[in-house]
Amino acid sequence: MPHTIHLAALKLLECIGAPTREERKKAAENSRISAYQDSTTNSLSATAENFAAATQVSDTPDDTSKPSSLIVLAVFTLRKIVKHVRSSPQRREKWKKEIKDVNKSWGTDDSVLMLILDVQTGWSSTHQMLRRAIQFRTAITGYVTNEPELRECELSIAEWDTLILVTG
């Protein structure tokens, strides 16, 4: 009985495209011969590249396409701001300084939290990103005002109101 189950499992693995023992050995030999980086940067066949391009799902629209609705535009703009803040240690320090300045002006001693960047596979990460952004609305506005690269990313009052409405 165990032998029959083993044969059935091997046949199932073969049907779903799992590599055979020989294919795994050959892949292991190839990985010892060539560097990992070389094997991962080899160009794909034209068919594979076309398929990848056709099926690629982007979590953000590219800069050439403008989002149509106010909420999509606001989330797109906020995502650009968050990526900018999180992109380098120097920008993170500027963000922390901005938070501390806002806390000082409000007379509070709230903790310094980083902005959350949403991810495509996290089902609630966009909501978390929006909630954290609303929490630090004043700091985001100050940060964007002081960063020349982000001047076009200033969120309008209507966009902030839309984000607040969406997050409930």
Automatic annotation (TrEMBL):
It comes from the Eukaryota. One of its GO terms (cellular component) is nucleus. Keywords: Metal-binding, Nucleus, Zinc, Zinc-finger. The keyword Zinc-finger applies. GO terms for molecular function: zinc ion binding. Signal peptide: none annotated. It is found in: Nucleus. InterPro entries: RNaseH-like_sf (IPR012337), ZnF_BED_domain_contain (IPR052035). This is Uncharacterized protein. The lineage of its organism: Eukaryota, Fungi, Dikarya, Basidiomycota, Agaricomycotina.
